[in-house]
Design a protein that fits this description.
- The protein is of the alpha/beta class and 523 residues long.
- The chain folds into 3 domains: 77 residues, Orthogonal Bundle (434 Repressor (Amino-terminal Domain)); 293 residues, Zn peptidases (Aminopeptidase, 3-Layer(aba) Sandwich); 125 residues, Aminopeptidase i, Domain 2.
- 28% of the residues lie in helices and 24% in strands.
- The chain contains 14 helices and 22 strands.
- The strands form 5 sheets. A 9-stranded mixed β-sheet has the order 1-2-3-13-4-14-18-16-17, with helices on both faces.
- Strand 19 and strand 20 form a beta hairpin.
- The radius of gyration is 25 Å and the shape is globular.
- It binds zinc ion.
- The site of zinc ion has 6 residues, from helix 9.
Amino acid sequence: MTTFGERLRKARKRKGLSQMDVFDAVGVSNKALSRYENGDAAPNPETLKRLIRLYDVSSEYILGLTAEMGRSADNSPEGENLIDMTDNRASAEKLIAFISASPTAFHAVDNISRKLSNEGFTKLNEWENWDIEKGGKYFITRNGSAVLAFKVGEGDPSGFNIFAAHCDSPTFKLKPGAELETIDHYIRLNTEVYGGGIMSSWLDRPLSIAGRIAFSTPNGIKTQLINLENTTVVIPNVAIHMQRQINDGFTFNPQVDTIPLFGSEKSKGGLMRAVAEAAGVKEKDVLGVDLYLYNKTPGAVWGAEGEYVSSPRLDDLQCAYAGLSGFLAGGNRDTVSLLAIFDNEEVGSRTIQGADSDFLLSAVERICAALGKSKAQTLPNSFALSADNAHAVHPNHPEYADPQNRPFMNGGIVIKFNARQSYATDGVSAAIFKKICAAVGVPVQTFANRSDKPGGGTLGNISATRLSIPTADIGLAQLAMHSCYETAGSMDTLYLERAAAEFFRTKLTRLDLSPDGGYELEA
Ligand SMILES: [Zn+2]
């Protein structure tokens, strides 16, 4: 028989609420709630009523008169473990807003940094001394396109809980002096491919340009983000009458077929004029640019029951967004919670702001030093989730999926496996992640490539070679990965938000077993 406190805790967990969420919703403090859940005190009838309403649980269950939790689980096939997903549309709309405000990796990091500042995180600089205190919240950025945020537990942090994702997506980068010579009255922009995108998805749709510029100042240079929202460019298809074979398959030449049209000869010089104007600087002072095309089509929630969300850049901003949300909600007094959002995953991660850099390693070393901990001892007590989207079974091509591991959208979080360790997951890290998801009623599913299809890589095994921490590679099921308009499940973002929050609330302690690989999990 469970105790009153345990039932209260279970009902809260089923609803996916942190103690902080409860405080925000009904004003019961963390301390009071801990005392109720630990059986050290009982709430008064008025408070109890508010908690029962908030948890959407039957009062008979809380009072121990029945083992059925009731209410939000009434219609669920898995009983008390399934979370209430009525919020999925709201969560998907928030995801769309986040992605719209993040047309490039630079903007995504700026967007995340602003959210962290609003939540009271202190910005540190890598080139300065760090004054890190227990209970403190900090973040650093590198190149303006990668960000690490961390919360130091106020107790005795013995390990790191790390959630990693990436914020770049396949696109086209403008080359220097991007305006091509006027030909047949047209001005086009010279671009090259960034990442492995689906080329055809970029044609015949409104695109725009965003990124970062570096401009001259009297004493040096400064950088600024720009988004040419009022500029539209289009990569036009050739009419079928001039290429009858188009529907039989097509090979794109990136120097010919994917060059966007900017304007007529009247717009000569207009690109850099627009850039300088957007930045509020003189055109002659713009000394360097990192500009990318992005899809202007806004995201949408759709499907007969609102099951799906389509948007540019779901890979991997969906995971970055959910990780951030879980990171802000979670935390444990005896761990360091760390969120890592890297750039350049789509081009191999081997840049100073990519997963294959010393960005995370050097931050971890500095945090260990500040806490007086040995890195060698702390890392084995740490755990990482590498979150990058996964392939859902395709409705028209189910044959591309593995016969047994067939993720579907809204089916929960995908755990990714690969024998060659393109994904870092193994039996132990999968078990840990399943246990964390089960604690908050989040379903999981598994992915493995068909053995005759090589599949892609991701962050987990790359950062693991830099920083040897047990890792699970996970993601959310989606269609059309690397199209400029991708589709995912509208519920899955919320699943990952909840699982990430629970991950950050969980302290993992290694057990001395043979063979090793045993852990104790405490939330
Ligand atoms: Zn990805």
